[in-house]
Amino acid sequence: MGPTASGKTDLALELVRRFPVEIVSVDSALIYRGMDIGTAKPSRELLAEAPHRLIDILDPLEVYSAARFRADALREMAQITAAGRIPLLTGGTLLYFRALESGLSVLPAADPEMRARIAAEAAERGWEALHEELVRLDPAAADRIHRNDPQRLQRALEVIRLTGRPLSSQQSGGVAGLPYRLLRLGLVPDDRESLHRRIRQRFEKMLVEGLINEVADLYHRGDLNPALPSMRAVGYRQIWCYLAGEWDRQTMIEKAVVATRQLAKRQMTWLRGDHALIRVNAEAVELSKLSAQVAQFIEGGS
């Protein structure tokens, strides 16, 4: 696991070449067909060498969930192990990793009226003030949810207000955990500026490769809209706004780069809170050392 643009796919490919592993994608954008350039989907050549499960499984019109991912991933992992191989879970959708490992609790459905009320409070008071409210109501949840993560913050307050109980106490009663031993590897960049440069360079490369045309094909289908999870993916939503005439090209580029940096920051915050994670320096991966750790794990060590 690791933040966007950290080199997860390249490292996964190296592990495929060294060990009897098969990749299961843990990415909420790679699941969609027709979204290749903007998701940095592996090339046909790479997929021929290292097949990835759970990519290209849905049309962008469809909605996917962490619960559905868990069911799909467990099925794919069972097939891989039955064939005598080892699942290699690779991606940056950290909510999916958590759902897979810890299971999911039964929480109340989204309440549009409550969400609108919380959004109005945020517009008036700011998300930082609402995060302080969460600190008072549910310190454990507040410790996990960054003040700059409005989607999760809104959901936490929504659940608390609907049920009268802390979100953290309700999440502790989920379904059974993952029936596998885990080696948790986190590709974590030490140099933030270097990551920011890679993010910009990667997006500019995507534009050269035809990302605007890719989004235009989706835009002109007629059955998609910017509220769909697929079209909210970073890069796609900014180009959608550009195609709709809301922004000029340079504004679109800057907004896409900033949004990608913000995504990477949220991912890094999440990873720093994972104390069981073996951190791998994204700028200088020591393959021999990492391979030794993986080999020890496969042989039954910790």
From TrEMBL:
The record marks T93, R115 as: Interaction with substrate tRNA. The keyword ATP-binding applies. It comes from the Bacteria. GO terms for molecular function: ATP binding; tRNA dimethylallyltransferase activity. InterPro entries: Dimethylallyltransferase, IPT, P-loop_NTPase. ATP binds at G2, P3, T4, A5, S6, G7, K8, T9. Substrate binds at T4, A5, S6, G7, K8, T9. Its cofactor is Mg(2+). One of its GO terms (biological process) is tRNA modification. Pfam families: IPPT. Residues 27-30, 151-155 are annotated as: Interaction with substrate tRNA. It catalyses: adenosine(37) in tRNA + dimethylallyl diphosphate = N(6)-dimethylallyladenosine(37) in tRNA + diphosphate. Its EC number is 2.5.1.75. The keyword Transferase applies. Coiled coil: none annotated. Catalyzes the transfer of a dimethylallyl group onto the adenine at position 37 in tRNAs that read codons beginning with uridine, leading to the formation of N6-(dimethylallyl)adenosine (i(6)A). Monomer. Belongs to the IPP transferase family. This is tRNA dimethylallyltransferase.
